[in-house]
Amino acid sequence: MSTALLARTHLDWLESEAIHILREVAAECARPVLLFSGGKDSCVLLRLAEKAFRPGRFPFPLMHIDTGHNYPEVIAFRDRRAAELGEELIVRSVEDSIARGTVVLRHAHDSRNAAQATTLLESIAEFGFDACIGGARRDEEKARAKERICSFRDEFGQWDPKAQRPELWNLYNTRVHPGENIRVFPISNWTELDVWQYIEREGLDLPLIYYAHEREVVRRNGLLVPVTPLTPAGEGEPVERLVVRFRTVGDVSCTCPVASTAATPADIIAETAVTTITERGATRMDDQTSEASMERRKKQGYF
Prior knowledge:
four-stranded antiparallel β-sheet, ATP-binding
């Protein structure tokens, strides 16, 4: 074995696999799109896309399904990063789906996280996307561990974990009929630790809420719930001002920070290396309603 081959790190192997997947999808699919929320995993995807296709333009637009309940600093970062890259950013809003009557919430302040599925399916139909590329990883949650790299969705946008296509020898089947689509996960084999090691190695810019900062929170069901207009403190709940950071970023109404003083990628790598709880398990209220929460949402079209 050559010295150059021995010198390759596990990040090099993961990067190479992801770039191969991105190029395969670009070559085989008629109308792919890369989902970009401004979160850490989608920032990694952008760097991988740069390595796969620069100095040319990306062979797909970027798209974000905006719940309208996102952290404002993440939305500002999303817009700035897309502008820096000079790539097309499509934004579609759950608020528009609510106005059309295709999304109906029980209460005005309900989490809109699951409602993203409807807006995503409407956007896929609007633009005729046949492949949606995203940053989901198998280590995040049990349902995501069942996914293939190229995950088939039927004409109703539904996912059947029992009807997944084989991917022997890293061969990916991207064939779909009109109305069907695939969800593509180039970093499916990465872990949270891999992501942070890659962020450090590549010097990637991220929204600052991923790093330690002070925030008002209340303790609720074992989570640190941020105090916001959407998630106010309940009557009698003591409000604390703690140093926290976000491990994952999503809808304000269901995404919680964790107590942490980690202010750099190196600090976060050290924390992540010893954690025993997944990022979603530690921070997502919507995944704690039942063990099947994510799988149920995915079957309805959720990414």
